Here is the input.
Amino acid sequence: DAGVIQSPRHEVTEMGQEVTLRCKPISGHDYLFWYRQTMMRGLELLIYFNNNVPIDDSGMPEDRFSAKMPNASFSTLKIQPSEPRDSAVYFCASAPEPYGYTFGSGTRLTVV
Amino acid sequence: GNSVTQMEGPVTLSEEAFLTINCTYTATGYPSLFWYVQYPGEGLQLLLKATKADDKGSNKGFEATYRKETTSFHLEKGSVQVSDSAVYFCARRGYQKVTFGIGTKLQVIP
Here is the structure.
């Protein structure tokens, strides 16, 4: 079991560019979560899916953020256009039920 | 709403010292409680959990007891090691999602 796989590990982009973060959950896990981690606000839940369907996106900061889960083995988090305040570590986590998460190693995003 | 409050760090201890990291939770319903650990450059890992009052979760020498009367789930370890240096997150299960505390950074010095 390779665990939750996120790509890229690091992303540096210029303000205004589109950024796409990717996540492959553990096979058989029905829940997928996207979190953002910053020093100021800690770990924030952005959105989560159950069986590929978005259930709660109330944590998505604004319309610049969007997330999709086209199938059970892949999800993306997109930021368009990106801003410096989006700089953070973004984590994807999956779970067979809504607790007992397995986290990926995260994507460190820097927007300059 | 559902939340957890944990002590702010950083916590700096000498090797073999006793560790306590405090955590309290909102008492809505009967939540399951968790401690997660995050090592540098990695994602969070489940350390231990407790699903009902008076349960004790334990793993790798760490323990936490679900105290309903004080709505607490404090993390303890009798003798910390340098390899325990990490950020520790208290968490509670709500409806279909887990709410995390802000995290407490622990630094253990030789």
